[in-house]
Amino acid sequence: MEGSIARWYASLTRKSxxxxxxxxxxxxxxxxPNSEVLEIAPGPGYFAIxxxxxxxxxxxxxxxxxxxxxxxRRNAAEAGVTIDFxxxxxxxxxxxxxxxxxILCRAAFKNFARPLHALEEFERVLNPAARALILDLRGxxxxxxxxxxxxEMHVGAVNGLITKLTFRLMLLKRTSTRAQMEQFPAQTKFAxxxxxxxxxxMEVMLRHAG
Length: 210
Known about the structure:
Blueprint: H1 3-14, H2 17-28, E1 36-40, H3 46-53, E2 58-63, H4 66-79, E3 84-87, E4 100-106, H5 115-125, E5 126-137, H6 143-151, H7 157-171, H8 178-186, E6 192-197, E7 201-207
Parallel strand pairs: 1-2, 1-4, 2-3, 4-5
Antiparallel strand pairs: 5-7, 6-7
Helix pairs in contact: 2-3, 6-7
């Protein structure tokens, strides 16, 4: 996303700030102090900023959108936190081997043109015993699950119909299924993969071979 579309998305997702705060608290509870954290495709930077507010972490974030990098840097400055937001490609990360203790990739994996290459890069830049967490939709969600998830959003009849069609015709068509997310890591050096799923999404925890 670039330009006005990226700015619209940043405004939209700001309304879900509570979700980013909860995720930051969860991740912080699993990391030792001074951990090196990498976020892939941070968009406006809300998660990274909330994690930085909790203190004690060295946070880097890479996004393919120049607009998002600019927005995220501005948001971090306004929040008074230090985060290294930079332009980059998930399939060719500009870091040396074993640079990070934890990687987060939220709501972006489905957009990667080369998902296997991205996973190989995740594994490469993680240090031994480190982990990567991918949060995204799952392409095998049923129509019934989509309907239930949208109903729980309480967005009204018209917006609900639009949201359902967006999931079915756009987002889920380019999203990996659970089976695919189990197969991808098997082609990398990750030692294990643990997948938890909900109505239309999944959490994929990958553990480094070290």
